[in-house]
Amino acid sequence: MTKRISPVADQKKEKTGKTTASKRLEKVKIAVNPRIDAKKNLKSKKTVFKTASSNVRITKDGVKETRPSNFLEFTVDKECNMMQFVQEKMQGISRNKAKSILTGQGITVNNQIITRFDHLLKVGEKVKISKHKRSQELKNQFVKMVYEDRWIMVIEKNVGVLSMGNSSNTFCVKTILDDYLKKKHLKCTAHVVHRLDRDTSGLMIYAKTQEAQDILEENWHDIVTDRRYIAVVYGAMEENSGSIESWLKDNKAFVTYSSPQDNGGKYALTYYRTIKVGQEFSLVELKLDTGRKNQIRVHMSDLSHPVVGDVKYGMGSSPIGRLALHAFRLNFYHPITNEMLTFETPYPKPFIHLVR
Predict the structure, then answer these.
(1) Count of CB atoms within 10 A of residue 163's CB?
(2) C-alpha 333, offset from chain centre
């Protein structure tokens, strides 16, 4: 069932001041005109970002700056496993050296870090091999490093940890990343750009520089092109796809409630697609048009199909011992290089098992 309320225009806040990266921000805003004309917007993105490369950036003075790449770049021309590919392209390299580069997170395939030597490569994939061994690897049960460069990090957050704490002593993803960067002797910290709930797992971006953070925050809706979640919900979904929109507002107990009319809250729009329907549960893919607090959880509750394990807006019980919500896809333009980056994780196996 598609739940539709009267459509409203997405409002943009006026900018009242310039950040430290103001010139850079102005260039991004000129290049990508936010949501004024959908067709023009899409066209401008393709035009501006398609030709940018990872070793070329625009300085604050508007000058193109080319830096030597720290990676050797290849295109896969035949199907093979990673070890075969590395040994063929890096002539003379030993298996131990190749494994060292892999375990040190020195190889990416289509911008995603690969550490398995038996990973199967497909024709046309882009492989980057670091010229230097990466000795400092992030090892933490709550955070997995998916991608990292000098400006940003893309991580996969586990359940049970906050994205950011209320104080410097709070254990959270930010403190984990700050400690990781300190051990690498880097003079930077993790800058929070967006958040996931404590009990939600999935992909997130953290900035390593103030400039990258400013650009991501100021241009989030233009830079991020696709952000999707997978959820297990109670009951059998009635429709294959649809959308739900409402206004979300917190009450005095900080519980977000939904209204079909403008109640002074924030407008929220969620698209959903049913992947599979089981006897008790349904597997649903969700795409956010807006990113409000608890948006997916509230909207699925509005549809009478609350997310499994949701204590706040659902039944609370969970056969898998966690909230069944995972951010599995994150596509965005790099805030500095303008390169399109795409990241995707598999659906969590416990989610799939629930809807068999």
Answers:
(1) 19
(2) 11
If one counts every other C-beta atom within 10 angstroms of the C-beta of residue 334, the result is 22
Q: At 282, is the pLDDT very low, low, confident or very high (cuts 50, 70, 90)? A: very high
Backbone torsions φ then ψ of 234, nearest 5 degrees = -75, 140
Find the helix or strand (DSSP H, E) in which 79 lies. Answer: none
Residue 227, pLDDT > 80, answer yes
Q: pTM for the complete prediction?
A: 0.67
Residue found by looking up tokens 């309320």 in the block: 5
Torsion angles phi and psi, residue 68, rounded to 5: -65, 135
- 14: phi then psi, degrees, rounded to nearest 5: -75, 140
Catalytic center residues: 197
Identify the pLDDT of residue 36.
29
CA–CA separation, 287 vs 228, rounded Å?
5
Calpha distance 311→324 (Å, rounded): 11
Q: Which of 305, 342, 278 is nearest to 126 (CA)?
A: 342
> Are β-strands 143-148 and 152-157 bridged in parallel, bridged antiparallel, or unpaired?
antiparallel
